[in-house]
Amino acid sequence: MRYSKSFIKTQKETPSDSDSINASYLERASFVEKQMAGVYALLPLGFKVYQKIENIIREEMNTIDSQEILMNVLSPKELWEETGRWQEMKDILYAFKDARDKELALSPTHEEQLTSIVRHKIHSYKDLPQYLYQIQTKFRNEPRAKSGLLRGREFLMKDLYSFHQDEEDLNQFYEIVKKAYLKIFARLEMPVKIVEASGGPFGKEYSHEFQVLAPAGEDTVFYCTKCDFAQNKEIAKVEEGDNCPKCDGKIAKDNGIEVGNIFKLKTKYSKSMGAVFVDENGQEKDIVMGSYGIGITRCLASLVEMFFDVSKNKMVWPKEVAPFDVYLIDLEGSQGEKVYDGLVKAGIGVLFDDREVSAGVKFSDADLLGAPYRLVLSAKTLEDKKIEFKKRDQEESNLVDIDKIIDIFDNDEK
RNA sequence: CGGGGAGUGGCGCAGCUUGGUAGCGCGCGUCGUUUGGGACGAUGAGGUCGCAGGUUCGAAUCCUGUCUCCCCGACCA
Asked: Which nucleotide is nearest to A155 (CA to C1')?
């Protein structure tokens, strides 16, 4: 992509109404545009990062044999009344009547919808298990949207639902999803903690939240500094400074952002909605369910909270999700096009800053936009037919032969 | 939904107390000089001051209502 033709319009100053690091960065760097409180549009840069996150999730979901679907956003009141959630969720439900006076809601989550589909299709133990997921916009009328994309009224989420014959099968799959989630967050370079949280109204078993520690987080996490013990403050029976109940470590306390959660729904929805199957003995049973979510736009925001250096206006995106691999600057004017073409042909994602602006502007945008690599051509480097190569998470840069630049990228990927 | 703060060119702000029909920086257009860290000169375009009503000869400025945004709280993937 050439900067001069792109829709990238960075700003020097942060928007006055931004309420968090992620919001001010994402708006300033023109990744997103705020439409109203808690509602953001993804612009080309933001959408690019979003899609890369989405694809990582999709890959890992497909790897565990779950099948992608896309459900409807509009859902009828009757469905929600089956589980009592029309009332229960009324404060956050975007509910309205259409022109024919039919009562509808914009779906805040999809347990009801998918359960209604599954009960129509699944009748025998031979049909189980099933794993279905979707990536879609959720609508929740938050009483107070805040923290940029961390708590919006409209947000993108991956939600997976599993359907089993019995709890044993659910438990097995639950652990598989847990591993898949760890893989996803590792690829996103997000250091997550698996945090025990309330399992809800059914049983005293815990659900698990995937939390990244960050000052902007709204949750409070108690965790062991030595082992993997971690609990959400709602259920924590430990205090900061306590001894860890699992090892000889100490308990610490921090803010966390919940980027994912996994939950054993068991028969909560199947029971109230009549989603049943016939087992080997001809007996009718409730389908056992699990649900597993990842907030994708929330991940996008969390990455900014983690990797944006506010004092230096510097961002470095994780390699797998960066909007571009490399930011190319040509201060001399003769070789830029050639290098750009070479990178494009080699399949390297490059943003070529071909604007007629001062060097300083280009360097500061390179810092702001956050590509993991930076290449600079100048009279100085060209004296020896070199180009400056900088890994942006490091201080030093070095000069490499222009002709070998593609090889450098290939080698660095290893 | 309770308490507090704020809405003035695309962005960030000043003006409002002490009414006289709008100003600065950035950005944007044109011309020229610049180019290793947000360059400089010249010139130009762009707002009727969130919205509605009221007071007044006259309202960005005073009064009332309303909408929106932000903060604190309740709530929350």
From this structure: B77
